[in-house]
């Protein structure tokens, strides 16, 4: 079925980057590694897309208990206070991230020793999910077993922001919808290779949030079992979970339920119906948002001397002003409500 080239998410973007060839590793992962190299996926830089456990099994957290927002933030803050070192493995285990030490040696704590202290391990710990923790492809928008997407403007403490190779925890707004505090495990090659918080400006478009500090866009997500405001309490009448959105390859982003998109593949219209694309004519619900396909989405930049993708923002060498690619044409950055998908200063 076509929409907008419906995508199921980068669930195959997991990697292990071994140092040398430890006995038995290639026997277990050889086929996956060869397939990944054939697809050009082995070079992913972020450790958070690696496999969830030594046995490669899927995480199962559907029975995880309810959690308050205050508790989720406090659990993440425990790692920040400890400056818990980034590792792509459990404590004292071998770490196959080539940017890290061969073995993970970090602050001992029986509560979290079994968790990976990478970006997705941090969010898994904060949300009380099972050790060693989920990976980025096992959170929304790619997998909705334990989380779902929410509008960026609806972010609350304890929510998270996910991409295919990095996930961070949302701590609090500084200026609602404009700047916020986040918590992350950034990676061994970072200047701060341990759990830390940072404050950043943001630009929001639906569930897509561009975080200036990270220099990229994320999808805002929420733990399915989060509720209350502290002390482990739960809301006796929690709000109903909103229907899931749909990821559109035509637009390059996730749209909300009942949004309508004209496919770049065949010019037909499709509507998001509970996480799945259906032909617009077969859905009785009115479109909550309409996205026509405007043809070519790339824009040629004379400043950079190359084609730039839709929503890329470039500072012009002619007048030093910022412009954004919008449906194949450059527009003044401040006239486009969409967040920049990549910024390119002079």
Give the CA-CA distance, first to last residue: 42 Å
The H-and-E topology, N to C, reads as HHHEEEEEEEEEEEEEEEEEEE
Strand order of the largest sheet: 2-3-4-5-6-7
Q: Largest sheet, described in full? A: 6 strands, antiparallel, barrel
What Rg is obtained from the alpha carbons, in whole angstroms?
Answer: 21 Å
Percentage of residues in strands: 15-25%
Q: Which blocks of ≥5 consecutive residues have pLDDT under 50?
A: 1-47, 50-58, 229-239
Cα shape? globular
| Overall average pLDDT | 79
Structural class: alpha+beta
What share of residues is helical? 10-25%
* Secondary structure tally, helices: 3
Number of strands: 19
Describe it:
- The protein is α+β, with helices and mostly antiparallel strands.
- 10% of the residues lie in helices and 25% in strands.
- The chain contains 3 helices and 19 strands.
- It has helices at 25-38, 69-82, 119-126, and strands at 147-149, 160-162, 167-175, 179-184, 196-205, 208-211, 216-223, 246-248, 253-255, 259-262, 269-273, 276-279, 289-291, 299-301, 306-308, 313-315, 322-326, 329-332, 343-344.
- The protein has a 6-stranded antiparallel barrel. A 4-stranded mixed β-sheet has the order 12-11-10-13, with no helix packed on it.
- A hairpin with a 4-residue loop joins strand 14 and strand 15 (306-308).
- Helix 2 crosses helix 3.
- The longest helix has 14 residues, at 25-38.
- The N and C termini lie far apart (42 Å).
